[in-house]
Amino acid sequence: MTKAKIDLKVVLLGYASVGKTCIVTRYTSGQFGDTHTTIGGAFSSKRVVVGETEVLLGIWDTAGTERYQAVNVSYYRRANAAIVCYDLTNRESWDKVTFWAEELTQNEPDIEIYIVGTKLDLIQQGDIKAVPEEEVKQTARRYKAHIFETSSRTGENVSLLFQTIAEDFCKRTNNGTTPVNTNPSNVVNVNTQTQKKKSGGCC
Amino acid sequence: MEDTKIAENKTTTTTTTMTNNDSNSSSNSEIDNSVDNLGGGDIEDLSNYILSKIDESSTATGRPARKYSEQDTSTPEWFDHKKHFFILSFSGKPIYSRYGDEVALNTFMASLSAMSSFVESSNDELRYITAGNYQFVFIQKNPLNLVCIANTGEPYQMIKQQLEYIHALIISVLTQSNIKAVFEAKYDLRDLLGGTDKYLDNFIHQTNSDFSILLNSVNCLRLNNNIRNSITNILSNRKCDSLLFSYLISGNKLISSVKHKKTPSLKSQDIHIVMNYVLSTSSFRESESWIPICLPNYNNTGFLHLYICYLYADVCLLLFSNQAESFYQLSEIKTMISKDLEQESIVDELNRSVALHDYTTSFTDVPNLLHFLYKNRSSNYSTYPIFSPPYSIHKKEKKRLFRLYQHIINHVNNSSNKPHKYYYHTSATETIIVAISNHHELYATFSPLETKKNVFESFTLLLQWITKDNSIIIQ
């Protein structure tokens, strides 16, 4: 029996310079280094295995700068999961999390949201968290979001984050709450996706 | 609209500010100071210390600090830069400065704004001011003012062209309609331009050293004509409804391009803007990218969508689409193009050519030739050799030749008389001969000691060689 293959579209959103590109680079190539301001969006993909299922993660890394806010809609449209990032040491970046969570719930009600605090290594080195944990939990409850704290510098929790996203997605598809995209080829076919209406609901 | 020169005495004040501002000279950068304090400390300690300093500055702003960002009108070093570029709003609000922090240069930019509005109040337009060795060049592009202050001795037209390229880059990020909307809403444009500094810095550098920009043309990668034709065929076969143009480039050189729809072709200025984006963004190398981009000469009111993907180490595919949703379709087209290239076994030949595309004048077999520039006027493609001795030895010599070409190109193209067909320039350092026809422009450089007869003979040979060799330029 061949493994079932499913496509999973993940989008990264968040304030400028919180480290969205770094998370992707760490995850896809295992590296950490200088990145530049992202313009528009960058697509990369990686295969993960969850039990008997092969999940093809299509990761959209978006620009955090304000001028691209309007176009980011086209990147998160029909995404299955969203990673909303903020810098653990930067309060201003947290304010943007609510903005994105709100916008996502409005436009893509089926999307699974992961609130990710980045630059965990700075906290471990003694920096103070800019946002109290209770506040993060509250926001997460409001948007039924998951919470993660990662460090792209050390790699801590980065793979775990994507693995969890894939596992959660498989669980949801197996429960039948979201239609399974059983496209036999590895190519994401936009047309079949648009035809299938999602039935909504979140675990 | 006539040339406006403000009398020397009005500008001397500015000139004095540019030179006599030594009062606040306590301006070494923080890192420099701390190096002094550490004295003869352990090298490893020192580098760690510097690294931590850099870390601090980058966590503060989120990005590594920009070069020269600590300079402003109170630091003498700021006045040492040969060529300043400023972007400000019509009301004098600072938007960008090539050197130094634009906010700290607030008052300086306000004076620039005053200069241009002084002339504007008499219903005229300030084009440039000469003050000693400095030239202040202004262009007004509602609602933006762009200013260059240079003591490089470049012709006014050339600096103006550079300012126009920079303005086009700003448009490509935001579109002209958005810029106007931002100003009407009284927002700060810098919020929207965030992160664009690097592209502007790189583009300014490029306009100062790139012959293809100087010639307002696109440089071609040297490639066997048959290979190039096969590539063009592949590009034109793989298309979809939303696809407007397919481009294959290597660095800032064009390998092949195809226009799929009945629309105007892309202008060289737009292509340079796109190439600047691609070259300045290393992350494009790692994944497929999908960016909104405005091409000012194509349509300055809206965005096109650009698919960017590196097929091989130095070969980048660009697909321009008019639909925001066509990413996955274009990604499939990329896969097919790359399969086609492999099947027709073009890949090896292409990558070999990309690695060895540079050529020197000796490749032409034309005797005594030191350097040349060639532009096809109907296609706007250009080709030129890399520098060889005596120019390749010192950076200064390369720059000098570049500046000399600037003057000659300006002279033959922008002179008020009838355009020149031939032009012969000779000085203590070189002889440059130029031929201009409807079809092409050719500038060839020889030693000043060469006899006229030899120069003419070589020049004819060179022209013959260029027309015969079909690999150096897209036919």
From TrEMBL, chain A:
A GO molecular-function descriptor: GTP binding
Domain of life of the organism encoding this protein:
Eukaryota
Is Repeat among this UniProt entry's keywords? no
Q: Keywords for this entry?
A: Nucleotide-binding
* Keyword Lyase assigned: no
Q: Which NCBIfam families match?
A: small_GTP (TIGR00231)
Name of the protein in its database record: Ras-related protein Rab-24
Tell me the organism: Dictyostelium firmibasis
UniProtKB/TrEMBL annotation, chain B:
Pfam families named in the record: Fuz_longin_1, Fuz_longin_2, Fuz_longin_3
User: What biological process terms from GO does the record include?
Assistant: protein targeting to vacuole; vesicle-mediated transport
Indicate the segments forming the FUZ/MON1/HPS1 second Longin domain, all copies. 242-337
Q: Which residues form the FUZ/MON1/HPS1 first Longin domain?
A: 83-202
Which residues lie within the region annotated Disordered?
A: 1-39
Under the heading InterPro entries, the entry gives: FUZ/MON1/HPS1_longin_1, FUZ/MON1/HPS1_longin_2, FUZ/MON1/HPS1_longin_3, Mon1
Q: Which domain of life does the UniProt lineage start with?
A: Eukaryota
Biased composition, class Low complexity, residue ranges:
11-37
Cite the FUZ/MON1/HPS1 third Longin domain residue spans from the record. 368-469
Q: Which PANTHER family match?
A: SAND PROTEIN-RELATED, VACUOLAR FUSION PROTEIN MON1 HOMOLOG
Any idea what this protein is called? Answer: Vacuolar fusion protein MON1 homolog
* Species of the source: Dictyostelium firmibasis
